[in-house]
């Protein structure tokens, strides 16, 4: 270990003995730092200025751990594509420790790809460069879009090849998370009938992520309800930008409500609720439109682990758990409507009547139906709608919008409804300045730039095949400013060719 800018306070290792296995990263033969998230390092309060390039490479490849690090492999279970695995765990990941960031928030620092652990399940515990850089791109894009997410602090090349069909350059990712607590963490102990440890884990999760619940009389029920709400908010955010997680197993559902594990994920281009990109999702379990229902299903699995904590009477406990999980539907619908209202440029309505809410739901649903019928690009359609607002909500919707939605009569009819709904907020016909303000709000809710699959693959191929990081760095810079109209980013706003999208698949990267 050596002196570094990390100041650790490792509560998981300290407070939860028996929930992990102490372990060490496997040394990398020729480490090289390829990416460092300077802004995130600053946010975490890390002082890395005294370290030279070689020391930074050793640090983020796991060759030289910082003072205070206590590397551990966490134990968890999980339902994977509906089938339960009683032991998964951190097979190629290590929690190095926790730091308190500049805002006093506790953050995990973890390696991914630093070698096998006792949970490796016959895997080599390594990671290829491409998937690790992919996690950087998607995580930073999600952060810039305002969506709760884990983030990448660094990527270090290891100087050795990993076998993934063909030899690929190896790498270690350093991931930052509010924590790595998962639904599967609770399932690990519940499956063994260890209700005392489930309670201990719940107490830890409440203290760390839901401290406002500490004085509640129905503590564990309130905890379950709080996790349900956060997941509803998270999935509504995903749906608003066309994000498809691709592997919503219970071991990939974060208790603090962050997006975690950017393996076979992707952003939808042509709007189709049945879109699936993951090569391993053969039956579309985790298709775009299924994500809310899958989130609720996963939450039911969490509720099952907490049943013994909810009430002494088993029947009452099951009823309480069921009610909490059933509450996901209303929570999600409210979050989805708030997301759609923002994207449509409608004012937030905190006390709208049921009829007003239903009318807005219908307006949003009918807009999506137009996109689906035309297989219109999801991101561009919303952005062009903002342009239509800037033009005073013109009936034609602008040339760009009309080109995406060729059924002009259907488009005109919908735009008339939308204009009337907007005008109702103004108490009548709105002046040009009001439409311009609405357009500006819409552009802050509807990104111009997302991680389009062809651009991501282009950048990863350059880095992996040729050692050229320039395309990765240029794409990352654009993704960090998703709402801006910068001419130099125009190529990143363009959809892929139809042929590319039709055959595109994503892979776990394991």
Main-sheet strand order equals 2-8-9-7-6
What's the main sheet like?
Answer: 5 strands, antiparallel
The separation of the N and C termini measures: 29 Å
Alpha plus pi helix count: 17
Structural class: alpha+beta
Q: Which spans have pLDDT < 50 for at least 5 consecutive residues?
A: none
Q: Please give the number of β-strands.
A: 11
Order of helices and strands: HEEHHEEEEEHEEHHHEEHHHHHHHHHH
Mean pLDDT over the full residue set: 94
Rg on CA atoms, Å: 24 Å
**Percent of residues in helices:** 40-55%
Shape: globular
- What is the beta-strand fraction? 5-15%
Count of domain modules:
3
Topology overview:
Layout: H1 11-15, E1 20-22, E2 32-36, H2 38-43, H3 53-61, E3 72-74, E4 78-80, E5 83-85, E6 93-100, E7 106-112, H4 129-144, E8 151-164, E9 166-177, H5 183-190, H6 195-209, H7 219-241, E10 243-244, E11 266-267, H8 291-310, H9 314-343, H10 354-374, H11 378-390, H12 398-404, H13 408-426, H14 432-445, H15 453-466, H16 470-479, H17 498-503
Antiparallel strand pairs: 1-3, 2-8, 4-5, 6-7, 7-9, 8-9, 10-11
Question: What attributes does this structure have?
Answer:
510 residues; alpha+beta; 3 domains; five-stranded antiparallel sheet; 17 helices; globular
What does this structure look like?
The protein is an alpha+beta fold and 510 residues long. It is 46% helix and 12% strand. The two termini are 29 Å apart.
């Amino acid at each position: 270990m050596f002196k570094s800018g990390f100041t650790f306070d490792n509560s998981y290792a300290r407070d939860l003995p028996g929930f992990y296995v102490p372990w060490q990263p496997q040394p990398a033969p020729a480490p090289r730092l390829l990416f460092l998230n300077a802004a995130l390092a600053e946010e975490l309060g890390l002082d890395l200025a005294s370290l030279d390039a070689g020391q930074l490479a050793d640090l983020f490849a796991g060759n030289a751990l910082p003072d205070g690090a206590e590397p551990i492999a966490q134990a968890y279970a999980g339902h994977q594509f509906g089938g339960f695995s009683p032991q998964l765990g951190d097979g190629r990941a290590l929690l190095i420790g926790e730091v308190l960031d500049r805002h006093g928030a506790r953050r995990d620092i973890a390696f991914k790809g630093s070698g096998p652990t006792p949970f490796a399940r016959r895997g080599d515990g390594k990671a290829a460069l491409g998937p690790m850089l992919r996690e950087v791109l998607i995580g930073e894009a999600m952060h810039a879009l305002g969506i709760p997410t884990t983030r990448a602090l660094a990527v270090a090349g290891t100087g050795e090849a990993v076998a993934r069909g063909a030899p690929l350059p190896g790498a270690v990712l350093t991931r930052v998370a509010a924590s790595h607590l998962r639904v599967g963490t609770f399932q690990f102990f519940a499956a063994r009938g260890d209700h005392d440890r489930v309670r201990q884990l719940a107490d830890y999760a409440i203290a760390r992520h839901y401290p406002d619940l500490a004085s509640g009389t129905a503590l564990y029920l309130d905890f379950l309800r709080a996790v349900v709400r956060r997941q509803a908010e998270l999935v509504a955010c995903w749906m608003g930008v066309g994000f498809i997680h691709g592997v919503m197993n219970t071991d990939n559902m974060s208790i603090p409500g962050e997006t975690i594990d950017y393996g076979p994920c992707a952003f939808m281009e042509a709007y189709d609720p049945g879109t699936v990109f993951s090569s391993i999702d053969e039956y579309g379990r985790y298709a775009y439109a299924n994500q809310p229902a899958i989130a609720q299903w996963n939450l039911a699995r969490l509720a099952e682990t907490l049943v013994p904590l909810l009430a002494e009477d088993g029947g009452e406990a099951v009823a309480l758990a069921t009610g909490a999980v059933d509450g996901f539907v209303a929570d999600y619908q409210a979050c989805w409507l708030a997301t759609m209202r923002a994207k449509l440029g409608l004012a937030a309505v905190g006390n709208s009547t049921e009829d007003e809410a239903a009318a807005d739901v219908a307006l949003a649903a009918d807009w999506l139906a137009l996109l689906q019928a035309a297989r219109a690009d999801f991101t561009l359609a919303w952005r062009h709608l903002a342009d239509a607002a800037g033009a005073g909500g013109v009936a034609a919707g602008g040339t760009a919008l009309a080109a995406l939605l060729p059924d002009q009569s259907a488009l005109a009819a919908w735009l008339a409804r939308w204009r009337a709904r907007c005008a109702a907020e103004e108490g009548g016909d709105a002046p040009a300045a009001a439409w311009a303000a609405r357009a500006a709000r819409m552009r802050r809710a509807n990104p111009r730039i997302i991680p389009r699959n062809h651009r991501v693959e282009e950048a990863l191929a350059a880095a992996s095949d040729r050692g050229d990081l320039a395309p990765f760095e240029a794409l990352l810079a654009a993704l960090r400013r998703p709402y801006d109209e910068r001419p130099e980013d125009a190529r990143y706003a363009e959809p892929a060719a139809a042929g590319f999208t039709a055959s595109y698949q994503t892979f776990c990267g394991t």
